[in-house]
Structures are given as structure tokens and as C-alpha cells.
Design goal:
By secondary structure, this protein is mostly helical. Helix content is 63%, strand content 0%. The protein binds protoporphyrin IX containing FE. Protoporphyrin IX containing FE binds next to helix 1, helix 4 and helix 5.
Length: 163
């Protein structure tokens, strides 16, 4: 990475960290369907939902369906880890370290740097899965997942719940 790229990398990373903190707070005080309490489903509920996944109609879940909840939690955990780990690492081909790297031992910084790179790949896989799920729900289940993500509103038919 060149100097300018790293600068931007840091600033955008701080922006992501701010968004993650906001989402974490919102998970406790925000509207019911997006609170962490609503995102936790039992393995049995997830298994049950998986059985109905192929059905060619909208899931009918008023908030996130059990699989969508898993996706939210995985993405949030991965993004949070990426942004937080970034604060403590340094670029081996570059002279500027992240602001908190000086508080950790060289060994830990090294380890976190490796995890930061590895998690970036995991994050890309999760984003790919997320986009694929949106396409699948849109084309196969005739359910638009992006509109509720943007507007916060979701229309659900009664008596269609697959949760
Ligand atoms: C969600 C936000 C972030 C993402 C997606 C991300 C992603 C990445 C990726 C893919 C690399 C590897 C680049 C390469 O090998 O050339 C990297 C490296 C790096 N990141 Fe981040 N990063 C994020 C946040 C941060 C933050 C907040 C900081 C520091 C304030 C940071 C500091 C660094 C540094 C110093 C490196 C270089 C480590 C190396 O030698 O590979 N990152 N980041």
C-alpha cells in the first residue's frame, strides 16, 4: 500500500468502526425486529427454516428470518473484528503503524496483522454469500430483501410465517 492509500484505509476504517458501534447500540435500543434479542434463533428454528427455504414464496418473517439473522451476526462480527484489529497492526512494507500498535507486543501485532488479512478474505466471502442470498430471494422466492434494509419497512402476509 502507498502512503495515500494507507491514509484513506485508516480513515475509512474509522468510519466503518463508527457504523459498527452505532449498529451495536441500535441492537439494544433500536426497533424490536433488529434488536439482538430478535436475531437469536434456536438451532431447531434454523433447521425448521432451512426445510422451507426452497418454497417458492416469501419467507413471511416480520424481521430477519433465522438464516438472515445468522448472516447479520456473522457480518457484524467479521466487520467489527476487521475494524478493531486494524487499530493494532502495522504494514510490513510500510513505515506507518496503526495508532494503537505501540501498546501491543511485536508478536501480538504480527498475529493480529495476519488475522486482519485473513478476516478480509472471510469478509469478502460473507459479502458474496449475502449478495447471492439477496439474488436468490429476489428471483426464486419473489421477496425483495433490500427494500426493508433501506427503508426499515417490510410488508408481511399474515399466516405465512416460516419461523
Ligand atoms: C472494515 C474495515 C477494514 C477493512 C475491510 C480492511 C481491510 C484490509 C485488507 C484487505 C488489508 C490487506 C492489504 C494488503 O495486504 O495489501 C489490510 C491491511 C491493513 N489494514 Fe485494514 N481494513 C480495515 C480497517 C482497518 C483499520 C481501522 C486500520 C487502522 C486504523 C487498518 C490498518 C491496516 C494496516 C496497517 C494494514 C497493513 C497490514 C499489512 O501489512 O497487510 N485497517 N486491511
Amino acid at each position: 500500500m502507498t502512503f495515500a492509500t494507507v491514509d484513506w484505509h485508516f480513515y475509512l476504517g474509522y468510519g466503518v468502526l463508527g457504523l459498527v458501534l452505532f449498529r451495536l447500540l441500535w441492537g439494544f435500543v433500536g426497533p424490536a425486529p433488529i434488536r439482538f434479542r430478535s436475531l437469536l434463533h434456536s438451532p431447531a428454528a434454523i433447521r425448521q427454516y432451512l426445510k422451507t427455504l426452497g418454497v417458492r414464496s416469501p419467507s413471511g418473517s416480520p424481521g430477519h428470518n433465522p438464516l438472515g439473522s445468522l448472516s447479520v451476526l456473522a457480518l457484524l462480527a467479521s466487520i467489527a473484528f476487521q475494524a478493531v484489529s486494524g487499530l493494532f497492526i502495522e504494514a510490513d512494507d510500510y513505515f506507518e503503524s496503526a495508532p494503537l500498535a505501540k501498546y501491543l507486543s511485536a508478536e501480538m501485532v504480527n498475529q493480529l496483522t495476519g488475522w486482519h488479512r485473513l478476516n478480509a478474505t472471510i469478509l469478502l466471502v460473507l459479502v458474496g454469500l449475502h449478495l447471492s442470498a439477496i439474488l436468490f430471494y429476489w428471483l426464486w422466492k419473489k421477496e425483495n430483501l433490500t427494500r426493508p434494509m433501506i427503508t426499515g419497512w417490510k410488508w408481511v402476509k399474515e399466516n405465512k410465517s416460516a419461523d
